[in-house]
Write the structure tokens for this entry.
Amino acid sequence: MRKWIFSLFIYCIATLSTINAQHSVARLWSEELLSAIRNDFARPTVHARNLFHISAAMYDGWAAYSEDADTYFLSKNNNGFYTPFSLTHIPDDVRSAQEATISYAAYRLIKHRFQNAPSFREIEEDIDQLMEELGYDVQLVSTAYQCGAAQLGNYIAAQIIEYGYLDGANEEDQYANQFYNPVNPPILIQASGNPNLIDFDRWQPIEFFQFIDQSGNPIGDDSPEFLSPEWGSVFPFSLQDENASTYQKDGFDYKVFFDPGEPAKIDDTDHTGLNNPYKWGHSMVSVWSSHLDESDSTLWDISPASIGNITEYPTDINDYADFYNFYDGGDYGEGYDINPVTNLPYEPQIAKRSDYARVLAEFWADGPDSETPPGHWFTILNEVVDHPYFTRRFMGSGAELDPLEWDVKSYFALGGAMHDAAISVWGIKGWYDYIRPVSAIRGMAERGQGSDPTLPSYDPYGLPLIPGYIELVDSDDPLHTDGVADTGDIKILAWRGPNFISNPATDEAGVDWILAKNWWPYQRPTFVTPPFAVYVSGHSTFSRAAAEVLTALTGDAYFPGGMGEFRCPKNSFLVFEDGPSEDIILQWATYRDASDQCSLSRIWGGIHPPVDDIPGRLIGEQIGIDAFNFALQYFSKSQDNNVVDNLSVFPNPTDCSVTIAYDQADNIDIQVYQMDGKLVMDTRIELSDSKALLNLEQLDSAIYIIVAYNEQGEILFNEKVVVL
């Protein structure tokens, strides 16, 4: 188990009181949230949502007292859920009030969202300790927010909890799938081949002797379900319906934002050789697997002098071959001439390609001590802020922000982007339901070779033959003479797999010729590959969206000082096996370079073919830009919540109806909410002589919030009405 610590920052063990002095209260709660994620099941969708909701809660806890900023949940209608709020008194000590509100909101939400985590006791102890260190009483549970800052924090958390029960995530049923069913029976991963594969284009569950998730948690179900195939219907942050398509399957409407279209199918084009993009992509995954051998003497410069600086991505699958280096690995990025901060050339770092590829696969996999990909980028953001060269100038200009304002704004924007990325990616995954490389490669190998009808074992669905990488076993082959294979079987030059590792701390599997139907991704045998469809890549999308947000937030494409680094010590960093053979330093000039490196790591790790990667990068770029721009509107006070002077509602209380008077429009849209935020009425009223009657007699006796909108969707007013 290990925690990612960026080597360009000084990390010291400190007491909590010392940390409190160094960081804002929002940063402290961000660290607690990331720790909670590491101690929970590895669910990228769920934790992207947690990161966003808790970041939004902290942002509102700050913005509620701000003269300049607008709130996100408080006094707003989000996806049909209205959060009533009107603060009648601003405290004298605004900063203390903000810190208390943020703390109670984050505490309540973390405790609620992680109550079923396998390590909840540890999570609860940690957040209780932080509340005690900060001087707050966890027994104060009132939500009467007019009474104090703590109560407002409790209120914000309570409202977001209610919102979470309505947002489409199915939180009340532990995020369980409601409609999705796989078309393929499971592959028994410890057995040879994949004889049960029915559809080569659809996802296949994996059956384990013991499944352990990415966070290292044993899972009782040895054939885990597809995670979140219906997530496209979860309430988003900035995603707009105009960018969504809706498809129907199995009685469910799959909502797909930024639909990339169908992935490559096995029978789309000519079956022979590498002409088929499906076979080309999965064959490249197998070829890159041959790079994962410590004894491979191939040397690369892995510094920004030679890697990174990609300026354009292919938009047509037929152009992917020009983007990747099929045989040698990597992409066409040529690096940078100079570091723009130091005005000096980047110093080369010569390393074994095998060490570099294995380190990439493990670093970006976020495991086993995983905060999942969206949480990983929160960690990167926090470490960037800790760099001595970093200044908190929003978008790179203006006066430096205080740490609390910077943190709540940056978490809010990044959290929104990560949440939207999860919704878009898993909407695509759920609908297209695309196969993983381990299923495809073993499945094609089960059929034979798909290159030459005149050679043995030909099958149009077989693996393409590639001399030196994918070949037929003949009578003189060591695999045949050793009794491992029959003539005509398909062999593959690849990482040999976890069956060749007895002790991961000292053993390496290495690369050799193995039966293709026994191929493994570069992963642990208890995990193998994520339990959900492959298309599109979540890592590519999350990372590119985050890179765009960090670039916009800081006003600079480059890491502080012109380079970010992560040190991977010799013979101690790798977890899947021993290694690396030498110290490796991952280096990136820009946030986008880090994102691009993350994308490549998933190919070397055997998790994604290229068809998943490029669309993910393109979608992530759009989501990151849109989410940041959407967040910007909240950083200055809007006029949406101002009461229009010439608009009135009477009588109040009422036993049946109210009259709404307004002399500036002919029509007004009206929404009526219960005090828990549930929408109970949505209608348009037509005014005659500037008045209209709104019938409320169907409502139970209670207090309601009436919200009026003009034709532009702007809030004209909101007012409590008592129905007797």
Notes: The radius of gyration is 28 Å. Residues 1-19, 639-645 have pLDDT under 50 and may be disordered. The first helix runs from residue 16 to 22.
